[in-house]
Write a structure and sequence with these properties.
It contains one helix and 16 strands. It is mainly beta. The model has no long low-confidence stretch (mean pLDDT about 85). This is Laminin G domain-containing protein.
Amino acid sequence: YDLSRTGGEPIVSTQDSISLTFKTRQSTGLLFHTGDGDDYLNLALKDGGVILTMSLGNGKLDVLIKPIRVRFDDNQWHKVTVHRRVQEISAVTSFCRLTAVVDGVYSEHSNTAGTFTMLSSSRVYVGGSENTISLPGSRINSNFYGCLRKVEFTADTLKLNLVELGRTGSKLIAVHGHVDFMCQEPEAADPITFTTRASHLVVPTWDATRTGSISLKIRTVEADGLIIYSSGPRSSHLAQADLFALEMVGGHLYLHLDLGS
């Protein structure tokens, strides 16, 4: 949802709220981002907790909801509600209160004061962006992988059901990547065993133009061995192609990265 690209005026309000429900096995990923210029609100999962960052005028806030012995990446449905409200204190100063609640149980709140008078939103991202780490206030670099439902953004009397707008093909919404408007259970990460020294897997090329991540767990009694190797096409003006590799040597992990230079 990007009004800045169409020349539309940003959504301006004295209070707004975000409500969404998610289910995932991924510990880190962008849930929601809205902003206009230097003002923003960023909602994400980080290491199994919910993190919220906000900048408004000259004030910045960080809220973390990560209860002891509770994680939100357990593939169960969790509801997050965020509420912002601006109240004018004087002719030059206003007060903004920020509240975040997960599952109606875990809550945090904070506040800031500054020269702002309204909340403004010209763009909204749900579940990710083309370059998440570059979003203002972002503390993560990965998009969300899982299920989202009932994603609602309310600004004063305006209410947007963003998932429904995307599902019905609204011109206000641009859908990027592979998005199914239904919730599918993630595939189980079943282990695989390599039984001989010649055993290996050949998988599709890892094509990460800007950012990318790989995670894995290993168990072995061998002190040496190649774990992952990925290389790009060889260029005529470079001595060798780009490569990324992870190996064990003498029981220690070694990471190799060569961008061709």
